């Protein structure tokens, strides 16, 4: 069943594979993370006791209390008043006008009546008309007939004295600011001063009424400026908020209407649960997997490699999510020291060794964002930024400290470096928070940071065999293990075909140097070269490097038989490696390192014997090299064997031979199925020449 599924995956295109896998993974990740971001709600009834202490999980504004505070601020605003500077003069002028009208009414009545006593009623009527004209102009007031009678019956001297006195008092009182709240006091003050003045007693009631009526507000509210001040005061009021982490109700407290309203406002009641966190998590998940999709879409690798790397990336991401969920579940009251045990460098360690550095950087950033979401204290807005930075710093340290060879010693060394970086970040964090931690708390945090770095290395070493087995990964760590001379297959090559073993070591040195020079995987080329001729162990004596006695069995065989034996070593080697569960990359090297090249020696021998032969029958079955590493190995294999057979190798002869071999392979189309450029072929030739010159240099002849 597993092989059938693997075969199906290999047949479908990477585009279909990636879309299906990313969509399924996005839904799975969304489901796993949903519990960490979904609002916690309670089934609470009004006027019942609270079973537990409830804190706000987010900051929300309380609109009712905010409006109450704004109304209070508006009520405390002092109105803006405008003082009427001409009010004093106007009031004094009105007072004088009233008395002057009385004098005029008396004078006119005296002229009309001659020597007869003036008609009082007529005078009152005439005076009222004059006062009505004053009222119409907006500066008068109405007096009763009794008071008007007092005015017309008084002597002119008394009227004039009263006029001057009352107008003077009114002018003095009106010079002071009078508002609506002080109007009564100002009128009482005016009355008191008039009563204590020298106004005739017969005119006193009229003088008092005229004086009181002449007093009015000379400071009025500026409505526009006052409203502007009120609006400013309202705007200055900060909204009243229920803060994250704020205790809304204590355990055992009665849930009154106000508390119930705050719980509802904070979205802590079952019926008020919000879908916003769910939608937000959906967008977050979409962004995470979109970035992964874009990375692999732009990745310049074969489809089967991208499928494998994408699968590994998603498995690593889910491992980190599960680790975060485990920490969050086992943590008590969000002890911050516990969450700093999270292995910050696990992601870059695994992805640097299993995929590529760019993916390691990208997933480090994405897991840091995820960690801020899942490892928050419950009251952090959006994400816990301390955790985000902690994972980023530790992850970047792991990315730049891990060595590409993947040896356990290198992983452990990088782990200690990550532990140091984590400890430095923790120190920065504790200093920045200005918290008064004691020595014990500091040690706990530092130990958690160091544990994070060491745990990253330990988990990487422990998980590498899992990934290598499940995904058939040929990691640098696996390559280093396969290069051990004590490996059973290498020991077999050494003991059964010592000449082939030494040839393979030389090819490994040449291939490694050439691949490193063109940016290919030198370690893969080296280890692949060790095993590329493993098929020769089935018939060691038929290969010249293993013929110690000087006899060549091919001399007694027909060319066709010799051809079959020589050609079979590539397919035999591939089958042997496959049987021993060796990685696919090494199997491909054994099968493809000769491509479809021609066995010229036996072809010529067959033709010399008079046989009618087809050239294609004397070619290796292939396929041609599919990768740069295999192409370089094929060149190094041919060059090493050819130079070793030279009588007196010189740098000039070696260079000419290497160029000839590369030119022949290129003309034969052996590089047509790999992306090896002309420039890279030139570099490969130069490196191989340099290396061979170092091996086959001239030596001095020592005396006997």
UniProtKB/TrEMBL annotation:
SUPFAM superfamilies: HD-domain/PDEase-like. Pfam families: 7TM-7TMR_HD, 7TMR-HDED, HD. Keywords: Membrane, Transmembrane, Transmembrane helix. Signal peptide: none annotated. CDD domains: HDc. Residues 496-651 form the HD/PDEase domain. SMART domains: HDc (SM00471). It comes from the Bacteria. The chain crosses the membrane at residues 12-37, 278-296, 308-327, 334-351, 357-375, 387-403, 409-431, 443-467. The keyword rRNA processing does not apply. PANTHER family: CYCLIC-DI-AMP PHOSPHODIESTERASE PGPH (PTHR36442). This is HD family phosphohydrolase. It comes from Bhargavaea changchunensis.
């Amino acid at each position: 069943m597993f092989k059938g599924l693997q075969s199906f995956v290999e047949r479908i295109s990477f585009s279909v594979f990636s879309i299906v896998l990313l969509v399924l993974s996005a839904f799975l990740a969304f489901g796993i993370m949903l519990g960490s971001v979904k609002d916690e709600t309670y089934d609470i009834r009004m006027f019942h006791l609270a079973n537990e202490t409830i804190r706000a999980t987010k900051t929300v504004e309380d609109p009712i209390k905010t409006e109450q505070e704004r109304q209070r601020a508006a009520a405390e605003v002092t109105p803006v008043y405008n003082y009427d500077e001409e009010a004093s003069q106007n009031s004094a002028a009105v007072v004088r006008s009233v008395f002057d009208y009385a004098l005029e009414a008396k004078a006119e009545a005296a002229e009309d009546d001659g020597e007869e006593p003036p008609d009082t009623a007529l005078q009152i009527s005439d005076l009222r008309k004059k006062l009505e004209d004053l009222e119409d102009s907006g500066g008068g007031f109405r007096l009763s007939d009794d008071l008007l009678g007092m005015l017309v019956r008084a002597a002119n001297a008394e009227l004039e004295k009263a006029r001057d006195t009352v107008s003077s008092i009114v002018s003095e009182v009106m010079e002071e600011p009078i508002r609506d709240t002080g109007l009564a006091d100002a009128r009482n003050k005016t009355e008191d001063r008039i009563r204590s003045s020298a106004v005739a007693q017969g005119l006193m009631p009229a003088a008092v009424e005229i004086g009181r009526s002449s007093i009015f507000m000379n400071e009025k509210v500026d409505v526009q400026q006052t409203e502007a001040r009120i609006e400013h005061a309202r705007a200055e009021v900060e909204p009243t908020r229920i803060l994250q982490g704020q205790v809304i109700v204590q355990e055992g407290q009665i849930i009154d209407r106000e508390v119930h309203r705050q719980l509802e406002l904070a979205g802590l009641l079952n019926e008020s649960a919000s879908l916003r966190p769910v939608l937000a998590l959906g967008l977050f998940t979409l962004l995470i997997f979109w970035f992964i999709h874009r990375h692999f879409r732009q990745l310049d690798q074969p489809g089967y490699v991208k499928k494998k790397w994408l699968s590994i990336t998603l498995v690593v991401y889910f491992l980190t999510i599960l680790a975060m969920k485990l920490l969050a579940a086992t943590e008590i009251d969000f002890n911050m020291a516990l969450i700093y045990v999270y292995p910050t460098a696990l992601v870059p360690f695994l992805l640097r060794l299993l995929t590529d550095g760019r993916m390691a950087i990208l997933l480090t950033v994405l897991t840091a964002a995820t960690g801020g979401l899942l490892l928050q204290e419950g009251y952090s807005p959006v994400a816990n930024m301390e955790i985000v930075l902690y994972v980023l710093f530790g992850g970047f340290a792991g990315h730049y400290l891990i060595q590409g060879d993947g040896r356990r010693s290198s992983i452990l060394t990088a782990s200690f470096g990550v532990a140091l970086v984590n400890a430095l970040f923790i120190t920065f964090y504790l200093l920045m928070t200005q918290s008064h931690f004691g020595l014990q708390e500091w040690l706990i945090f530092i130990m958690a940071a160091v544990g994070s770095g060491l745990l990253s290395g330990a988990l990487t070493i422990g998980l590498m065999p899992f990934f290598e087995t499940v995904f058939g990964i040929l990691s640098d760590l696996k390559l280093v293990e396969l290069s051990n001379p004590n490996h059973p297959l290498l020991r077999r090559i050494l003991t059964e075909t010592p000449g082939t073993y030494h040839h393979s070591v030389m090819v490994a040195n040449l291939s490694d140097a050439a691949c490193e020079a063109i940016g290919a995987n030198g370690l893969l080329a080296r280890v692949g070269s060790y095993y590329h001729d493993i098929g020769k162990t089935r018939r060691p004596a038929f290969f010249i490097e293993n013929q110690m006695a000087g006899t060549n069995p091919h001399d007694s065989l027909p060319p066709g038989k010799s051809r079959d034996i020589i050609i079979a070593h590539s397919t035999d080697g591939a089958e042997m490696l496959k049987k021993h569960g060796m990685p696919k990359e090494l199997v491909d090297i054994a099968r493809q390192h000769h491509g479809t090249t021609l066995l010229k020696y036996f072809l010529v021998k067959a033709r010399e014997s008079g046989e009618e032969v087809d050239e294609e029958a004397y070619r290796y079955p292939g396929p041609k090299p599919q990768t740069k590493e295999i192409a370089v190995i094929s060149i190094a294999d041919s060059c090493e064997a050819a130079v070793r057979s030279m009588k007196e190798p010189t740098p000039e002869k070696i260079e000419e031979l290497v160029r000839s071999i590369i030119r022949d392979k290129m003309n034969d189309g052996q590089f047509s199925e790999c992306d090896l450029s002309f420039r890279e072929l030139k570099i490969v030739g130069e490196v191989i020449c340099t290396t061979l010159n170092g091996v086959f240099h001239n030596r001095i002849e020592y005396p006997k």
